[in-house]
Design goal:
alpha/beta, three-stranded antiparallel β-sheet, eight-stranded parallel β-sheet, globular, TIM Barrel
């Protein structure tokens, strides 16, 4: 039931990937996801040097012998990211996969990664960018719809439409993200033609994730109506929870403020203060609409158990309905 081109490409049991989340996608979470049968993903943008990333990769290897990946951000960054160093370390450490994300293709890194035996998955928010990633040599693409937490692109297209559009636009496997947080979303994504799913918001609430307990409790109390998409005025649309920082950012955009002024709120260190330190109004709080479906803190293994068992139950019900 769960054999797809994604499980075969990555050597994993279930076609479920953990999204790369800055400050949160660390060894403990990534290893837990991989041990449960999915693909855990570290995020390189935490780190200042390739050697720091190497240490985190090796910590992850101590916690799992299963495949895992590393996210390499291709988004514009206030602090230049040493992506060349990161890619070199990823190849040297024989990491199974790289998830690139951003508005440009991974073409500059694809030859080195493939020569090193690393699978390349490019994450984007449009069918057009998915097709460009395929032309650049990506082995698979992840597309995230408007429901997604964090970067959502500029097109305002939901996962329900974006996933099949991407499937129709490329020949490589498609992974769907945005609004997926339980067995129903998982099965729906497969029905749309995707061959895997990526989830971030759900994993933020797990016991293995370093999200601050105050942030987790905030998420448990939030509904699907408690997020907002901002930063469109600087063509960097992100979905986040509503808080005082989001209110200030909305006011800035309404009066035409520029990036330099907004950085006081959207800078990465502020997100760390919110998500890791528990200062809930210190900055933007990236989170998807699926937060409305989350009402308890579970382990990663418990989440996998529920999704896989739920998917099997849905298959049986659909078999009866469609017979």
């Amino acid at each position: 039931m769960f054999k797809t081109r994604i499980t075969e490409l990555l050597g994993i049991q279930y076609p479920i990937l953990q999204g790369g989340m800055v400050h949160l996608s660390r060894a403990e979470l990534a290893a837990a996801v991989s041990n449960a049968g999915g693909l855990g993903i570290l995020i390189s943008a935490h780190f200042l040097t390739g050697e720091e990333l190497r240490n985190e990769i090796r910590r992850t290897k101590q916690l799992t012998d299963k495949p895992f990946g590393v996210n390499v951000s291709l988004f514009p960054s206030v602090r230049p990211l040493p992506n060349d160093e990161f890619v070199q370390v990823i190849v040297e450490e024989e990491v199974a996969a790289v998830e690139t994300s951003g508005v440009r293709t991974p073409a500059e890194f694809v030859p080195r990664l493939k020569h090193g035996g690393v699978k390349v998955i490019h994450k984007c928010a449009s069918a057009k960018h998915a097709a460009a990633a395929e032309r650049a040599g990506a082995d698979a693409v992840t597309v995230v719809g408007l429901e997604n937490g964090g970067a959502v692109g500029m097109d305002d297209v939901s996962t329900l439409i974006l996933a099949p559009r991407a499937v129709d636009s490329v020949s490589i496997p498609v992974i769907a993200g945005g609004g997926i947080g339980d067995a129903r979303g998982f099965v729906a994504a497969l029905a749309l033609g995707a061959e895997g799913v990526v989830m971030g918001t759900l994993f933020m609430t797990t016991k293995e994730c370093s999200t601050h307990p105050k942030f987790k409790e905030w998420m448990l109390q939030a509904s699907e109506l408690d997020t907002v998409v901002l930063e469109k005025s600087i063509r960097n649309a992100h979905r986040m929870l509503k808080n005082k920082a989001a209110d200030r950012l909305m006011e800035m955009e309404a009066r035409g403020a520029g990036l330099d002024e907004m950085l006081a709120i959207i800078g990465g260190d502020n997100y760390k203060k919110v998500a890791v330190d528990g200062n809930l109004d210190a900055g933007t709080a990236y989170c998807g609409q699926v937060v409305g479906l989350i009402n308890e803190v579970l382990t990663v293994q418990e989440i996998f158990n529920r999704i896989i068992e739920g998917a099997r139950n849905i298959r049986e019900k659909l078999s009866d309905t469609l017979s």
